[in-house]
Amino acid sequence: MSTLFFRAVPQRSALLWRAFWRALLPLRPACSRTTTFLWLVVVLAAWCLRPDLAGVTSLVRGLGLSEASYYGLLHFFHSPALDLESLTRLWQQTLQRLFRRRWVRVNGRAVVLVEGLKRPKEGKKMPGVKSLHQESRCNAKASFIMGHSLQAVAVLAQAAGAYLAVPVAARIHEGVVWSHRDRRTLLDKLGALLGGLPWDQPVTVVADADYAAAKFARGLLGQGHHWVTRVRSNAVAYFPASPRKGKRRGRRARYGPKSKLDHWFRYKEDFTKAPSPVYGETGVTLRYYTHDLCWRRLGQLVRFVWVMHPTRGRLVLLCTDLTLEPLEIIRLYGWRFKIEVSFKQAIHTVGAYAYHFWMQDMHWRPSGGEQRHFEKYQ
User: Fold this and answer.
1) Per the count of CB atoms within 10 A, which of 156, 173, 233, 310 is most buried?
2) Which pLDDT band, with edges at 50, 70 and 90, does 202 fall under?
């Protein structure tokens, strides 16, 4: 591979490339060969430097590689010498080492953000492409698209006075069927993805209302993690059961009276005014109210926070950690938007979701026209 690169390296950038090399060196066990690991470093470096999102040719232009490296890159993306599961675990451990002092922690637990992403794809033969419904309030997005449905996990970090969602893993969890006996839902697959990562300590998972399901929460609580999410407006909860007086026959009641969560906004006089703790908001005053109720789906007490925001409207938040203050819960949910910012950077800057792959049994070979197209942009 020494013939594929320019030998002259600017002295000013030598320090940056050494730090880049030390950060990626722990990923070496994920590759069965040293050559595969070197190609992995080349691809990651090209993703950081390429001037456009034109596919493999942009990687070649970004690092100034020779023409012979084009076919080497194509072979790398189809090579079985790179273990994806091992690479994901090593990447998560590398993030723990690099961002240990920068991770945002609440009650000693790191903040993990989860969210779904739907990317349109035009390939009719591309695996996993299906009709998807986008539940978005943005009028610029179509209601139905053909594309891939992904679920992503990111860790919240703080650097230079800003909060960043550092991506950990993303998988296509819808449309790909490996076995007809697999009955797992999207929440089951996301829980398996979170559980498969080697967390050194319990974390606090922040999610949107799409993940407000008891099955997903039980999996997190079973591993010692906690959960902050938004619940839907038609959700209900129960007061704790009152203690039994005297001797009565029958089983003791587990839940008290039923209450619709949306009805609690009627008691505006009981809400507390406070400056908004959401990141980036200054001079904004909101109202909130908190109460611990039994969530029947989970079978335990959880903390609900009712929020009345002057511009964002009303929402009800749920937290399984009863020691967190309501303003801290609101701040946690406000950080969830950072994973949306990371999606925007990955799409428009890095081009992480601009991939296009074919069926596994269809071997792609470059034609003469594609070869001339490659030589034209050199």
Assistant:
1) 156
2) very high
Q: Is the pLDDT of residue 331 over 80?
A: yes
CB 4 within 8 A of CB 68: yes
H helices of 197-237, where?
Answer: 214-222
DSSP, res 81 = T
pLDDT in tens, 36-80: 999 999 999 998 888 888 888 888 988 888 888 888 888 898 888
Model pLDDT, residue 376: 41
CA 276 to chain centre: 25
Same domain? 216 vs 105: yes
Domain ranges, residue 367: 100-224+337-378
Q: Verify that 268 and 302 share a domain, yes or no.
A: yes
**Complete DSSP assignment for 314-366:** EEEEEES-TTS-HHHHHHHHHTTHHHHHHHHHIIIII-TT------TT-----
Of residues 185, 176, 237, the one with CA closest to residue 210: 185
- What is the rounded (10 degree) CA torsion for 216, 218, 222, 227? 70
Same domain, 341 and 219: yes
Whose tokens are 């910012």? That residue is 341
Q: Is residue 92 part of a domain?
A: no
47 and 146 together in one domain: no
Residue 156 belongs to some domain of the structure: yes
In the chain, the number of structural domains is 3
Q: Check pLDDT > 50 for residue 362.
A: no
Alpha-carbon gap, residue 161 to 177, rounded angstroms: 43
Residues 43 and 34: beta-carbon distance below 8 Å: no
317 with 304: CB under 8 angstroms? yes
- Structural domain includes residue 254: yes
Whether residues 196 and 157 share a domain: the answer is yes
At residue 373 the predicted structure's pLDDT band, cuts being 50, 70 and 90, is very low
Same domain, 331 and 341: no
Quick one: residue 204, left, alpha or beta (phi over 0 = left, psi -120 to 50 = alpha)? beta
The predicted structure's pLDDT at residue 11: 63
Give domain status of residue 89, yes or no: no
How many CB atoms are closer than 10 A to CB 152?
23
307 beta partners = 288, 315
**Does 193 lie in the same domain as 250?**
no
Nearest to 293 by CA among 329, 331, 322: 322
